[in-house]
Amino acid sequence: xxxxxxxxxxxxxxxxxxxxxxxxxxxxxxxxxxxxxxxxxxxxxxxxxxxxxxxxxxxxxxxxxxxxxxxxxxxxxxxxxxxxxxxxxxxxxxxxxxxxxxxxxxxxxxxxxxxxxxxxxxxxxxxxxxxxxxxxxxxxxxxxxxxxxxxxxxxxxxxxxxxxxxxxxxxxxxxxxxxxxxxxxxxxxxxxxxxxxxxxxxxxxxxxxxxxxxxxxxxxxxxxxxxxxxxxxxxxxxxxxxxxxxxxxxxxxxxxxxxxxxxxxxxxxxxxxxxxxxxxxxxxxxxxxxxxxxxxxxxxxxxxxxxxxxxxxxxxxxxxxxxxxxxxxxxxxxxxxxxxxxxxxxxxxxxxxxxxxxxxxxxxxxxxxxxxxxxxxxxxxxxxxxxxxxxxxxxxxxxxxxxxxxxxxxxxxxxxxxxxxxxxxxxxxxxxxxxxxxxxxxxx
Length: 444
Ligand code: GDP
Ligand code: ZN
Prior knowledge:
This protein is of the alpha/beta class and 444 residues long. The chain folds into 3 domains: 8-121, 2-Layer Sandwich (Gyrase A, domain 2), CATH 3.30.1360; 128-212 and 377-425, Up-down Bundle (Four Helix Bundle (Hemerythrin (Met), subunit A)), CATH 1.20.120; 217-366, Rossmann fold, CATH 3.40.50.300. The protein is 47% helix and 17% strand. The protein is built from 16 helices and 13 strands. The chain has helices at 30-38, 88-100, 110-117, 123-134, 138-148, 151-174, 183-186, 189-215, 229-237, 280-295, 310-318, 331-334, 356-366, 381-402, 406-424, 430-438, and strands at residues 8-11, 18-26, 48-53, 59-68, 79-86, 104-105, 217-222, 255-261, 264-270, 298-304, 325-329, 339-340, 346-347. Strands 8-9-7-10-11-13-12 form a 7-stranded mixed beta sheet, with helices on both faces. It has a 6-stranded mixed beta sheet with strand order 3-4-5-2-1-6. Strand 12 and strand 13 (346-347) form a beta hairpin. Helix 14 (381-402) runs antiparallel to helix 15 (406-424). The longest helix has 27 residues, at 189-215. The two termini are 20 Å apart. Bound molecules: guanosine-5'-diphosphate and zinc ion. The site of guanosine-5'-diphosphate (GDP) has 20 residues, from helix 9 and helix 12.
């Protein structure tokens, strides 16, 4: 238990007028504050109708008081919640009185931070609270709720438990290495590690869907100059953002734009293309394109349907970090039917808008809007990165196992465990915690 000496308070409902305004107080001074404010400490976990008075006995408001004794509260500390009338003056008077009685205003996320520090929730759950509040779609809210309920954390814990088991077996065996016994095989170490890698891959896929729902998808549009990248961007965005001109190579810089698709953000980067050039300005554009490609969730390769240019396409494909969605544009000129072909190529016209619906559908599918959100978790980039680090540590450990480097094998397993522990906050630096909670809203 992490006993905090300071008592904190904040308005938990939005500032402004409302039928009800809720003020939260957490910390050791709660009984004392309740005594002055309400006359006495209300019975635990009962909604009690009370008059709220200040230290000079003046009536501030009347409303409901709820007392949650430590450790059975959200923060794990003494907590008092006051539900008064949600007017600016009333709430302000109440807060000032509570501060006079020894509490201080809470920083953003400080209630959740205390809940985490007191072991009431883990870090991934604390983050899910903020993500639930901020979610911009029903699907995102559902994913956040599943993470808040601990389903994501449970999966992480199961992986960590398995890793601890493997590590203790290996570390115990290292000291007694005996040529006669193949203890790696006896412990089914390789099989177990492969199983873990599969489970992490599965978890990564589910977490990535949740991440896309929250953060949106980063799409990079690549293609030769003049194939219609800017036009497609404008067509998707429904407004003029990128410069459309018939002169090749106009989009020298990387143009970024954000559009909404069913409440989900799409971050689109219109690139300068990847052709070889001696022009230093264009070279810089190409360098930025390559950076954008590395961070993309989806790469779209745009071609002019009239000039398939297979040589250029092969060249472009070779530079992609992942297989791109190939779109053939300008079908109004080539007279090809619109839509997704059997080979997975999308035919459209950025000019007439034919085939754009098919593209939007494809994107929604890709973001998991059509899939069953019941199996996805809300995740942040740091979760995905930690899962990937655990994944590569385990892959390395397999190599060490094959070469009988037992110490290195044990070390990789330790690193995998550490990476997973960062997700739930078992191993997290203080500055990371500070960063995470600072983005929360006040009163949470
Ligand atoms: P970018 O260089 O790839 O960004 O290409 P732009 O979007 O600037 O388009 C180049 C030229 O092709 C412009 O004149 C556009 O109007 C034209 N264009 C783009 N898409 C289409 C299309 O689907 N049909 C027709 N007919 N013209 C198009
Ligand atoms: Zn362009």
